[in-house]
Amino acid sequence: MKSLASATWQDINALRERLVAIERASVEESAQAFIEDFVGSFSSIVLGRAFLVLPFEKLPARERAFATELVKGDARLRPSTRVLTLMGTHGSDPTWRSRTKSLGHLAIPLLDQSFVSGIPMIASLLASLEVDLSALESGRSIATR
Q1: CA angle 12-31-40, nearest 5°?
Q2: Digit-coded pLDDT (tens) for 103-127
Q3: Element (H, E) at 114
Q4: What is the pTM of this model?
Q5: Beta bridge partner(s), residue 82
């Protein structure tokens, strides 16, 4: 098995073709299948996760409850609040293979830059993706590319 660093375009394209060929019933199933195949395809990946940003009001009940508990009653959590939602997870540790068992990353409300900075793994991920966290306060799009 190759490391991601040594992967060729052919390796990446083969992964893409495997995933496109399999029909899924939901976004969650698609994300989980992608992450399992992605992590399984490259020996250098220890943990892979797929997130989707959704408005709080669109979350399933379990994720809404998780997000509500995470912010501990913060009034800024509104129906339109964007929530970073874990859709798929897979890794070398068996406890990393179920999104619903995630201890801190199932549904993270993106209240503001300060709140997100208090969750180191997520803050680091978003910084590496050059996400504009200052846009959270103004309601602008956080995607920078």
Answers
A1: 50
A2: 788 999 999 888 888 888 888 888 8
A3: helix 113-117
A4: 0.82
A5: 55
Q: Are 122 and 116 in contact (CB under 8 A)?
A: yes
Q: Find the helix or strand (DSSP H, E) in which 125 lies.
A: helix 120-128
At 79, list the tokens.
Answer: 């129906």
The 3-class secondary structure across the chain, one letter per residue, is CECHHHCCHHHHHHHHHHHHHCCCCCHHHHHHHHHHHHHHHECCCCEEEEEEEEEHHHCCHHHHHHHHHHHCCCCCCCCCCEEEEEEEEEECCHHHCCHHHCCCCCEEECCCHHHHHCCHHHHHHHHHCCCCCCHHHHCCCCCCC
pLDDT (tens digit per residue) in 51-68: 998 999 999 999 999 999
Residue 83 bridge partners (DSSP)? 54, 109
